[in-house]
Amino acid sequence: xxxxxxxxxxxxxxxxxxxxxxxxxxxxxxxxxxxxxxxxxxxxxxxxxxxxxxxxx
Length: 57
Fold this sequence. Notes:
By secondary structure, the protein is an alpha+beta fold. It has helices at residues 6-19, 30-33; strands spanning 24-28, 43-47.
């Protein structure tokens, strides 16, 4: 479960689909552990299933 308002989840999904299509994205940190607060960031890791480096993303 991602501790983030649904409107922000939609924005993040749109950004990811435009900038890193076809990549696997994992969230980690406080927003996945249920201990986020109003100022918490969203930690994401982008993985290329083909193994290509994603420098500059």
